[in-house]
Design a protein that fits this description.
The protein is mainly α. It has 13 helices and three strands, in the order ααααααααααααββαβ. It has a three-stranded antiparallel β-sheet, with no helix packed on it. Helix 2 runs parallel beside helix 7, helix 4 crosses helix 5 and helix 7 packs antiparallel against helix 8. The longest helix is centred in the middle third of the chain and has 49 residues. It starts with 6 loop residues before the first helix and ends with a strand.
C-alpha cells in the first residue's frame, strides 16, 4: 500500500467490462449531443443579431443546416426549437447514464463486501489471531466502499473528458486559435493536477487510511472491553488515544479538501482572462466586422460555461482517485493474495473409538517464541484429562490444535 500501484484499478474495471462498455456507449452519445448543443447556439445567436449563419462551417455549419431542415418559416423559432430538442435528448441521455452508473456502483459495493466477507470466512484462524479486529472491520466495510467510490469517480472522469473533447472540436471548427489556447490551458491544468495527485494527494489518502484504521481498532477494543475499562478507571486513556488519531484524520481530511479546492478558482480566473483577452483582440483588430463575430463569441462564452466545470471535474477526479487508491489496494489485496485460506479436511470421522494422540507436536504463533516443543500426550475416550497451567501456557492453544484451528509446526495429531 506504500507505492502507487494502479493494478487494483485495472483489476476491478476488468470484472465489470460489459456494463462499463454500455456506460461508455451512452456517455459517448451524450457527449456528441453536448457538442452539438453548443454548436446549436450559433444559428440562434446569428438570427438574433440579424446575421446570416449560412457561411458557417464545421459543427456550427452542420447545426445550421439541421435548423434549415425544420418545417418552420421563422429562422429564430426554428433555431430555438432545434436547441430545445437537443437539450431534451441530452437530458434523457444524462439520466440514463447516471442511472446506469448509480446501479453499477451499488452492484460493485454489494459484490465486493460479500467477496471480502467470504474471503475472511475461509481464512485460517491464525490469520484472525494475527490481525486486530478493528483493522478487519475497517477492511470489511470501508475498503469496499472506496471501490464503489472509485467507480463513480472514474465515470465522472470519462464523462468530463468526452464532454471536453466534444466541445473542443466545436470550438476548433469555429475559431482555431482561441480554441488551441484553451486546449493549452487545459493541458497545463491537468499536468499540475497530475503532479499534485502523485506528490500530495496519494500520501494524504494513506494518512487517512492509517488514522481511520486506528480509530476503528480503538473504538472496537473500547466497546468490547468497556466493563474492564471502567472497572480499572482507564477510560480517559482510551479517549486520549482515540482523540489523537481522530485529530490526525481530521488534519489529513482538511488538507485533502484544501488541495482539491485550490485548482478550480485558478482555472476559472485564467480562462476568464483568456476569453476577455480574445474579445479585446477581436475588438481592436476587427472593428468593422466585430458585430459579425458576436455570434461566434457568444458560442465561445456558452462553451466556456459548460467546459470549465468539466475540466475542473476531470482534474478533480484525478485527485479523488489517488486519495481513494490506498483503500482500493487493500480491497484488491484481500481478494487476490493477502488472506491465507483455511485447509479443509478430506476425511469425515464417523466415530471416535480410542484416543486423540499428540506425537512430537510443536507449535509457535507467528513471530513468537515456541509455545509447545515436541509434546507427546493422549486424550483417551471415556476418561477425563485435566490440563493445568498459568495464563499463556497454551491451554486454549491445545484445544485449538485439536479442533484444527491451528496447524502444528511439527509432529502429528492423530485420532484413533
Amino acid at each position: 500500500m506504500n507505492s502507487q500501484n494502479y493494478t487494483p484499478i485495472i483489476y476491478f474495471l476488468s470484472r465489470y467490462k460489459a456494463i462499463y462498455a454500455i456506460i461508455l456507449v451512452v456517455t459517448f452519445a451524450v457527449s456528441l449531443l453536448e457538442g452539438l448543443s453548443v454548436a446549436a447556439f450559433f444559428p440562434l445567436f446569428s438570427t438574433m443579431l440579424g446575421d446570416s449563419p449560412e457561411t458557417a462551417s464545421g459543427f456550427t455549419g452542420f447545426a445550421t443546416k439541421l435548423v434549415q431542415f425544420l418545417p418552420v418559416s421563422s429562422p429564430f423559432v426554428a433555431a430555438s426549437l432545434f436547441l430545445i430538442s437537443l437539450f431534451l435528448f441530452k437530458t434523457v441521455g444524462i439520466l440514463v447514464r447516471d442511472l446506469l452508473v448509480a446501479w453499477t456502483g451499488a452492484k460493485i459495493l454489494y459484490s465486493v463486501k460479500n467477496q471480502v466477507m467470504e474471503r475472511y470466512s475461509n481464512a485460517e484462524y491464525q490469520f484472525m489471531v494475527d490481525n486486530q479486529q478493528g483493522s478487519l472491520i475497517y477492511n470489511s466495510l470501508s475498503a469496499p466502499t472506496s471501490v464503489s467510490s472509485l467507480h463513480l469517480t472514474l465515470s465522472r472522469m470519462v464523462t468530463s473528458l468526452l464532454k471536453v473533447v466534444a466541445i473542443t472540436v466545436v470550438l476548433l471548427s469555429l475559431s482555431p486559435i482561441p480554441a488551441i489556447s484553451f486546449i493549452s490551458l487545459a493541458v497545463v491544468y491537468y499536468l499540475c493536477i497530475h503532479y499534485l495527485s502523485k506528490k500530495v494527494t496519494f500520501y494524504l489518502g494513506q494518512g487517512r487510511v492509517r488514522a481511520s484504521t486506528e480509530q476503528t481498532i480503538i473504538a472496537n477494543e473500547f466497546l468490547n472491553g468497556f466493563r474492564q475499562i471502567i472497572s480499572f478507571n482507564t477510560a480517559k486513556r482510551w479517549v486520549a488515544r482515540f482523540e489523537r488519531h481522530n485529530r490526525a484524520y481530521a488534519e489529513y481530511y482538511a488538507k485533502d479538501l484544501a488541495w482539491q479546492a485550490v485548482p478550480r478558482p485558478l482555472l476559472e480566473l485564467s480562462a476568464l482572462g483568456m476569453l476577455l483577452g480574445f474579445v479585446l483582440v477581436f475588438k481592436a483588430t476587427s472593428q468593422e466586422t466585430f458585430s459579425d463575430d458576436l455570434a461566434a463569441l457568444g458560442v465561445f462564452a456558452i462553451a466556456m460555461v459548460q467546459i470549465l466545470p468539466a475540466i475542473n471535474t476531470f482534474g478533480g477526479t484525478r485527485l479523488q482517485i489517488m486519495s481513494s487508491l490506498p483503500n482500493v489496494q487493500i480491497a484488491h489485496e484481500i481478494l487476490t493474495q493477502s488472506v491465507p485460506v483455511r485447509g479443509e479436511g478430506h476425511r469425515e470421522l464417523s466415530s471416535f473409538e480410542n484416543a486423540i494422540t499428540f506425537e512430537g507436536v510443536s507449535f509457535a504463533h507467528k513471530h513468537r517464541e515456541t509455545l509447545m516443543d515436541n509434546v507427546d500426550m493422549s486424550f483417551e475416550r471415556g476418561k477425563v484429562t485435566a490440563i493445568v497451567g498459568p495464563s499463556g501456557s497454551g491451554k486454549t492453544t491445545l484445544i485449538n490444535l485439536i479442533l484444527g484451528l491451528f496447524e502444528p509446526t511439527g509432529g502429528e495429531i492423530k485420532v484413533d
